[in-house]
Amino acid sequence: MRTERNLTRLDRVFARLDREPERPADIDVPKMSRHRVVLFGATLAFYVAIVWAVAITSWLVRFDWQVMFFRPYQQWPEIHAFLDYYVVLGQRGPTAVMVAAWLGWRSWRQHTLRPLLTLGASLLLLNITVGAAKLGMGRLGPHYAITIGSNEMGLGGDIFPSGHTANAVVTWGILAYLASTPRARRWLSALSAVTSLGVGLTTVYLGTHWLSDVLLGWAAGLLILLALPWVEPLIARAEAGLFTLRDAWRARRGRTAPAPASSPVGAPVMVTQPTGVDEEVPARETVGTARSPRAPVYLAPGPHLARSERTPVTPVGSRRPPHADRVPRATTTTSARPLTGG
Predict the structure, then answer these.
(1) From CA 70, how far away is CA 245, in angstroms rounded?
(2) Which residues of 139-150 are buried (b: 16+ CB within 10 A; e: fewer)?
(3) Which residues contact 301 (CB under 8 A, 6 or more apart)?
(4) Which residues pair with 285 in a beta bridge?
């Protein structure tokens, strides 16, 4: 009796990986819905409120100083070594390489450049917006603070908002944004939220950022993720342009590629007149130098003659002149020879 083995989850994953790569018929591209617009507006209002609260040195700044004087890295020193490594999940270089490797594999499997182009667009927006905010507000970090109780803004710093936190929100959130199923999108959204939350609190624990820096970093990263549907048309045009360039390059390579080694030498090829001539006249050109064929050999008709009965013929092309006084052997006799003796 034949029994079938139940496939495990890992077997199903490898079965999907063994399929031939193909471009999905319909790629789910998020639209700028009303719900997303409301979330974008609420996050933008939160962003402006945090900046205003820090600028006027409100209760949020006083709370920043209280957390700094609490010194969490001294309260819980046993987790310091682990958090030193965990904070790397918010650094732009390592996280961008890891996520780009995964999205590059997805681009190859699905024959589309959208995952990589979306990652590139989000990181570009992150560098522009967060970098401009850092340089514009110039806030100093806790380790470099000068006046106790002040907001430390406009002093040449670059920590407001938190770049680690914003990068964690964008880099890991892009996986949820590009998820192919609603279930995967929900799980990846929760995972990216927990990861970015942990990265932000880790920077507060290590004393490299104020708590308000982390709040503004969360808002900055979320704004970029919510605004990505507005960038989707540009991503689609960029993908189409890159594919057009690829096809043109392949066509140019195909026209200028040399003849394959298996093609016979001397095969005729079509040669046309250069551009500017009214009519193209095909001509034949022989590739390479072919050996001249041998002259055909014709057998003489009739019965085979003995050597003594053949008529001597001067070979074609021979330099030896013909001998008119030479008599064929068949007509010679012993009496015709002169007798010599002594």
Answers:
(1) 58
(2) bbbbeebeeeee
(3) none
(4) 269
Q: Are 188 and 240 in contact (CB under 8 A)?
A: no
Q: Is 22 helix (H, G, I), strand (E, B) or coil?
A: coil
Dist CA 76 CA 264 (whole Å): 79
What is the Cα–Cα distance from 29 to 236, expressed in whole angstroms?
10
pLDDT for residue 146: 87
d(C-alpha 185, C-alpha 172), whole Å: 12
Q: How far apart are CA 174 and CA 117, in angstroms?
A: 11
> Residue with structure tokens 């780009």?
100
Amino acid at the residue 167: N
Distance from the first to the final alpha carbon of the chain: 118
> What is the number of other CB atoms lying within 10 angstroms of the CB of residue 80?
13
Q: What is the pLDDT of residue 167?
A: 95
How many helices, marked H, and strands, marked E, lie in the chain?
10, 2
Mean pLDDT of each 10-residue bin along the chain, 342 residues long = 60 56 60 90 96 94 94 92 92 90 88 91 94 93 90 91 94 91 89 93 94 96 94 91 88 66 48 48 47 49 54 53 57 48 45
Bridge partners, 283 (sequence order)? 271
Strand partners, 100: none
Helix (H, G, I), strand (E, B) or coil at 229: helix
Question: Any residues with CB less than 8 A from the CB of 162 and at least 6 apart, and which?
Answer: 200, 203, 209, 213, 214, 216, 217
Angle at 283 between CA 279 and CA 288, to 5 degrees: 150
Asked if residue 23 lies in contact with residue 112, where contact means CB atoms within 8 angstroms, the answer is: yes
pTM to 2 decimal places: 0.66
| Contact (CB, 8 A) for 191 and 172 | yes
What local confidence, expressed as pLDDT, does residue 298 receive?
A: 45
CA–CA separation, 96 vs 123, rounded Å?
9
